[in-house]
Amino acid sequence: MRAFILLVFLSACCLAQRPKPCKSPRLLTGTLSVATQKENLMAYAKYTYDALGQRIRLREFGSYDNKSFHFDVLLLFQKGVMYKIDKKNKTCCKKPLKTDFHPLAIPEDANLLGQVVLGSSSGPGQGVLVNSWEGELQMKNRTAKYFSTVTEFGCVPITTMFHTSQSGWMVTSFFNNVIGLAEPQELIPPHFCKDAQLEEEEDEDPATFFSLF
Questions:
Q1: Is 137 left (phi over 0), alpha (psi -120 to 50) or beta?
Q2: Is 157 part of a structural domain of the chain?
Q3: Which residue ranges in the chain fall short of pLDDT 70?
């Protein structure tokens, strides 16, 4: 009887310690990088992420098909508007944003691949405990596969691999993450965007960080 009770207790402890799908902090600031398999894209961006107000600011630079690019965009999902900002020339392009907002999170139906320590577990401060997940997402007319790694404590994003038959693999890495908004004003359109008129939507840009969010 005692052995049975001990077995039940240990089983309950193991189930309690098993990682569960989680939601990332609602306010995040940091840097991320993206590389794609088919589009020959390599890019970096400073990002400001607000899941409460459904706002994202991306200041991105990189190369696409051996051509360098740079752009600064503010995505306001609740208003359905995207601003392309040029601070140097103080110009602003306002376009419709028809994409739904998807908060950074591990979906409830994700499968746990495992839990590991990045770095070393030999001493304090030498490593970070992370959980890796996999799953599928139903998108328009296609299914996407993903592999995502987040911290065990805080659910801070580390790396995401995203695959569709159309674009191949996209690898995104997050670093220098800070919980909260370091510069809240980054999520407000600059004063020179006040009189910007909504323009007709052009052809969609090649693979960028938009797919991530």
A1: beta
A2: yes
A3: 1-16, 201-213
